[in-house]
Amino acid sequence: MNEYKILNTDGLAKRGRLSTVHGDIETPVFMNVGTLAAIKGAVSSKDLKDIHAQVELSNTYHLHVRPGDEVVKKLGGLHKFMNWDRPILTDSGGFQVFSLSGLRKIKEEGVYFNSHIDGKKIFMGPEESMRIQSNLASTIAMAFDECPPSKADEKYIRKSVERTTRWLVRCKDEMDRLNSLPDTINKHQMLFGINQGGIIKDIRIEHAKEISKLNLDGYAIGGLAVGESHEEMYDVLDNVVPHLPKDKPTYLMGVGTPVNILEAVDRGVDFFDCVYPSRNGRHGHVYTNKGKLNLFNAKYELDERPIEEGCNCPACRDYSRAYIRHLLKAKEMLGMRLCVLHNLYFYNIMMSEIREAIENNCYKEYKEKKIKGMEGKL
Ligand SMILES: [Zn+2]
After folding, report:
1. Which pLDDT does position 281 carry in this prediction?
2. Distance 233 CA to ligand 1 centre (A)
3. Does an H or E element contain 237, and which?
4. Among 8, 22, 80, which residue's Cα sits nearest to residue 55?
């Protein structure tokens, strides 16, 4: 249990398997984002199985504020609460603390801020984040870190990253303690550390080396997809991934478009999460192998084809573009739901194609063909 095995490599692309107390995760994997223990768009945990989701991702800060992690614990943990028996990753709340709250004070012990729901004063530090995630009883917990603003100066980023390292050590100690307590729901909870440093190469590399010494269950690259260019992001991956342990999962947080994922896999990343497929789906933007469609477009009014011919998702199996367009225009919830299901299925199936291509040592050919298709160049 909690063992990561590399089954094959093709260039830097890794085909791995992380065995967890909630079952195996085949990587590269896309984690389906359900911030509040549900995927936005009326997608249930039963639907997730239908669209081949392996991992559900929930948000520590949001669940702490509502319904409260103590409530979730009393109800047996997140798995029981949302009726999902496969792996769950919880993010640490760090990102939300820094992105949602206008008023905050960062101290060595943690962060003081106001709830975005009722303005109530909250304190969160490494220990609090670990306790909340232990109450939620996720499969994988993320370390509490600071995601410094991308425009921050080098001096600030350096100071922030050093503090994030000290916070990581505290996260590890607290998780070890929590996992040893008799009333902890998941005593095998794993901890992933997070690399930060903006787009400053030296700081990123130094931090990657530093956190690699801690022998964590996995390593994430955070603080990207926050406004930098795709080239800058790929550049960070080229520099940082070689300094993270190869025999551990590598997670690129909050990324990204299908092309971003294909490029990051080629650079050695094998865990992903992103709100794009569900957010775009709710707005009628759907992914296909020939590019994105906007179902609000008038040209789909009489289009009896599914979103994508040959797609086996719950939307394409039974419904036409014309019908889904009508639902979206009429603001029927089913319209959003079908688009979200299709998009998440598209991402999950792309990940299984990626795994197969790495197994067959033809990842680069697969990647190029897939990208050309999506750009309409085939
Ligand atoms: Zn479909």
Report:
1. 96
2. 30
3. helix 230-240
4. 22
Residues with CB under 5 A from ligand 1 (ion): 307, 311, 313, 315-316, 342
DSSP 143: P
At residue 160, the 3 state secondary structure works out as helix
- Do 244 and 217 touch, CB atoms closer than 8 A? no
Alpha helix segments (H runs only) across 266-320:
276-282, 314-318
pLDDT band for position 57 (cuts 50, 70, 90): very high
What distance lies between CA 11 and its chain's CA centroid? 24
Tell me which residue range forms the domain holding 363.
281-374
Is 85 an annotated catalytic residue? no
96 within some domain: yes
DSSP string, 75-142: TT-HHHHHT--S-EEEE-SHHHHHHH-SSEEE-SS-EEEE-TTT--EEEE-HHHHHHHHHHHT-SEEE
Among residues 194, 228, 255, the one where a domain terminates is: 194
- Reported confidence tier of residue 373, pLDDT bands at 50, 70, 90: very high
Give the model's confidence band at 101: pLDDT under 50 very low, under 70 low, under 90 confident, else very high: low
Distance 69 CA to ligand 1 centre (A): 35
| Distance from C-alpha of 344 to C-alpha of 33, rounded to nearest angstrom | 10
Q: Would you say residue 73 has pLDDT above 80?
A: yes
Catalytic residue check, 118: no
Q: Which is the catalytic residue, given 91, 145, 217, 266?
A: 91
Beta strands at 293-294 and 218-221: parallel, antiparallel or unpaired? unpaired
Orientation angle between helical segments 258-265 and 333-359, nearest 10 degrees: 20
The domain total for the chain is: 2
CA–CA dist 180, 187 (Å, integer)? 7
Question: What distance in angstroms lies between residue 347's CA and the mean position of ligand 1's atoms?
Answer: 11
Residue 9 in any domain: the answer is yes
Q: Residues 12, 154: one domain?
A: yes
pLDDT of amino acid 372: 97
Q: Parallel, antiparallel, or unpaired for β 250-252 and 218-221?
A: parallel
